[in-house]
Amino acid sequence: MTSPQSSLERFHLRAEALHAPPSGIVAVVDHARGRDGLVPLWVGEGDLPTPRFISEPAAAALLDGETFYTWQQGIPELREALARYYERHFGIRSGPRDYVVVGSGMQAIQLAIQAIAGAGDECVYLSPAWPNFAAALEIAGGKAVPVGLDFAETGWTLDMSRLEAAITPRTRALFINTPSNPTGWAATRETLSAILELARRHGLWIIADEIYSLFWYGQGTRAPSFLDIQEDGDRILYVNSFSKNWAMTGWRVGWIKAPPALMPVFENLVQYSTSGVPQFMQRGATVALDDGDDLIASHRQRASEALEILTSRLGATGRVRFARPDGAFYLFFEIEGVTDSMASALRIVDETGVGLAPGVAFGLGGEGFFRACFNRDLGQIAEAAARLEGFIAARN
Asked: pLDDT tens across 203-236, in order?
């Protein structure tokens, strides 16, 4: 029998596209999508729709005819709102020329890669990791080099000597996602300083994915950021998205924060990809930034309560190991005796109706773990915990 892979080879596609890895998360979702009684904790989104105070301005702009080509960098009102957002939450002064609006956080990552790395170049990232960065880089012809975080129930940690050892003459950037998807690890200010000093010493870019900064369970209202320590001339691109904070995953709107001198480059990259984000959607995004702080606080509070339910119930089984996350809204956990996370995720959803992402989908260091998104209704989280308790007990 001819395999799907070999049958595609007759079309003479680029090898990088032909061999792009299938998503292990999507494999589980597609296996059970639409079943009755599912508690879907497999993908990285909550269960709340975008609130009306965000969607209504977008709908009004659509009905008012804001359906034409618009600013490739993003409408000025949205970029001004981004500057206000960063001043409120990060205490920095910036202006509209510091931002470019793009079609999702994923496109922000793609454009950052296009600006920095190409065929034969390497970028180093921390693993276990959301798989899309590595896949996007390798589709572009680069090489993604993972550096494993170390797991202990007291927390995930980064070995700086291991990170430096992964750097070669071909390395162009460090991709740092903190707080992390899927582990919930968050770099301390001291760790961020060490990473930044390493990048300076080797002349590297940092692509900083700080999308979960405000989903933070430590002291203060946000996680430590490279913005706390960055100096003029540092090579840092910040990639971000409206998806998580404001319940806008389906909108596909994001942004890049970069030195203003680079904006003509990013405007060109936008032009040759999407030619800009629809203006009516940007109207909603502007309101989200200016009027959404209370919404973010309520999302964070609910996630914190959901985390407590999930960790206390699973921890009480005595057969689940995890490091309590510092930030984001995922619990990355092991079940005693489970080694094949893909097969087990399929079995769990078949037997319990709880959808989990298999740890193998998150690369180096992920196998044997599961990722559960707990940014959901507290009753659903309690129900998922009860079903998982039953599954674990039945394994005796």
From this structure: 999 999 999 999 999 999 999 999 999 999 999 9
Q: Which two tokens stand for residue 137?
A: 């880089």
Which candidate, 256, 258, 245, places its Cα nearest to that of 285?
245
Q: What is the pTM of this model?
A: 0.95
Helix (H, G, I), strand (E, B) or coil at 40: strand
Residue 162's beta-bridge partner residues? none
Query: Could you give the CA distance from residue 15 to residue 9 in angstroms, rounded to a whole number?
Result: 9
CA–CA distance, 249 with 343 (Å, rounded to integer)? 28
In the chain, where does DSSP find H-type helix? 4-8, 15-18, 24-32, 52-63, 76-90, 105-116, 132-139, 160-165, 189-202, 263-271, 279-291, 293-315, 341-352, 378-393
Share in percent of the chain as helix, strand, coil (round to 5):
45, 15, 40
Q: Which helix (H) or strand (E) holds 362?
A: none
Sign of the Cα torsion 231, 91, 182, 336 reads: positive
